[in-house]
Amino acid sequence: MEEEKREMETKLALWLAVAVAATVTTAEEGEEEEDKNSCPQCDAGGRASGCDPESGRCLCATKGVVGDRCDECDRINHYFGDPVLDNCFCQCPPPPV
Fold first, then answer.
1. Residue 58: how many other CB atoms lie within 10 Å
2. Residue 81 CA to chain centroid, in angstroms?
3. Which of 22, 26, 27, 54 sees the fewest Cβ atoms within 10 Å?
4. Which stretches of 1-97 are DSSP H helices?
């Protein structure tokens, strides 16, 4: 009887250890997922779809807007203006005829 009790306590302790470990892992994974989705260092005023979790660089979602904080017009592609005021406009060359 005493041996059965010890065996049951051992199984219970093992089960509890596994359950606690699983809970901690799930919480850590949840925190990592939350960290990937939130980027406090990327404050782009709604011009970004997210950011690179390692560098914090914003992923600009507004056409014609570039920069680490989506705070520059894409001059390489002929966009000029002020992205902070939401007015990057294209002075694009006309398409070939």
1. 25
2. 28
3. 54
4. 2-37
Chain segment 15-58, per-residue pLDDT in tens = 545 544 544 444 555 455 545 456 666 778 888 888 888 888 89
Rounded distance, CA 41 to CA 44, Å?
A: 9
Weakest-pLDDT range from 8-17, 34-43, 60-69: 8-17
Which CB contacts under 8 angstroms, 24+ apart, belong to 48-56?
none
Whole-model pTM?
A: 0.53
Q: How high does pLDDT run on average in the chain?
A: 74
For residue 66, give the 3-state DSSP assignment: strand
Task: Give the CA distances from residue 72 to residues 86, 91, 96, in Å, rounded to whole numbers and listed in that order.
Answer: 10, 15, 27
Alpha-carbon dihedral sign for residues 37, 40, 45, 51: negative
What class is the 2-90 domain? mainly beta
